[in-house]
């Protein structure tokens, strides 16, 4: 597949998650809730995690922002559901490395649609948009432990 076709495919994946977000909404009950925002562009997210015995049983987000931040939140919640906390944090580390343009080894973890966000690393001003949900997840998990 040529670079242009791959770039187009990645754009389509991002827009699909933006227009049809997965796991958008609010959970009721005893859940871990983290609110974060990106003051430079106005993106804001409320991330909710239901963690039982070290496993992310459910994840939802609410908020508003650009297509990159909302798509990333959709992809992240989809990817971490059913994962243990350590794997979710490994995914977050891999994602951060990918945003910095570093080569990453995804042999242990399938990043699924998340790889569509690789191109964001070429736009430093957008990296904070892409990492907002991930930073919220890290903050929540670290506060919980």
Automatic annotation (TrEMBL):
UniProt cross-references to Gene3D superfamilies, sorted A to Z: 3.90.1010.10
Source superkingdom: Bacteria
Positions of transmembrane segments: none
CDD domains: IscU_like
Ranges where the NIF system FeS cluster assembly NifU N-terminal domain occurs: 10-129
InterPro entries in alphabetical order: NIF_FeS_clus_asmbl_NifU_N
NCBIfam families with a match to the protein in the record: SUF_scaf_2
UniProt-recorded name of the protein: SUF system NifU family Fe-S cluster assembly protein
Protein source organism: Virgibacillus tibetensis
């Amino acid at each position: 597949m040529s670079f242009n076709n791959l770039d187009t495919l990645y754009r389509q994946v991002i827009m699909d998650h933006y227009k049809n977000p997965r796991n958008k909404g609010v959970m009721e009950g005893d859940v871990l809730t983290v609110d974060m925002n990106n003051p430079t562009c106005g993106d804001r997210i409320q991330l909710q995690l239901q963690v039982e015995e070290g496993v992310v049983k459910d994840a939802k987000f609410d908020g508003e922002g650009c297509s990159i931040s909302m798509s990333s939140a959709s992809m992240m919640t989809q990817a971490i559901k059913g994962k243990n906390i350590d794997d979710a944090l490994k995914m977050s580390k891999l994602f951060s490395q990918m945003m910095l343009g570093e080569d990453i080894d995804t042999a242990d973890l399938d990043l699924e649609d998340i790889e569509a966000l690789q191109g964001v690393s070429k736009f430093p001003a957008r990296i904070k948009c892409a990492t907002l949900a991930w930073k919220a997840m890290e903050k929540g998990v670290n506060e919980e432990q």
